[in-house]
Amino acid sequence: MKTIAGLHVHEIVQTYSDTLIRIAVQQTKNMSEAEDIVQEVYMTLMRQKKPFESKEHLKAWLIKVTFNKCRDYFRSSRVKKTIPITEEMNFIAKEEQIVLPEIFQLDEKERAVVYLHYYEGYTTAEIANLLEMNVNTVGSKLRRVRTKLKTILEEGS
Predict the structure, then answer these.
(1) How many other C-beta atoms lie within 10 A of the C-beta of residue 45?
(2) Domain range annotation of the chain
(3) What global pTM score does this model have?
(4) Which UniProt key words apply to this protein (predicted)?
């Protein structure tokens, strides 16, 4: 059985699928498309020739590829009308579900920055690397998003 970064493929799928699905759902707003995107990520992983330095490197690579696949999805002809957030997304923790609809009001890049910072715990420098953005851009997006979310949440109360 193939191992990558010291993990068997089934261990990689078990370890990272929830994170990758959450990212893809957050980006596409569509569970079915998110699942397809994550499948594509794993297929890309299986074709990957370069070794990974560590599990952290593997995770960062998987996240980066997921965001890239989501970007490709929006550029493709596959984009359809999105389905509303429903109980089918019960894999998301209850506290995340409270703010999730508000996060969907943000644009794609803003959602990505928020998710990586608040849900995955990445620093602005790590986010900049993952999303191929300037560190200062990531910082300013986080500041703008905080203000935007605060306004959205206050208006909804």
Answers:
(1) 19
(2) 1-91, 93-157
(3) 0.64
(4) Sigma factor, Transcription, Transcription regulation
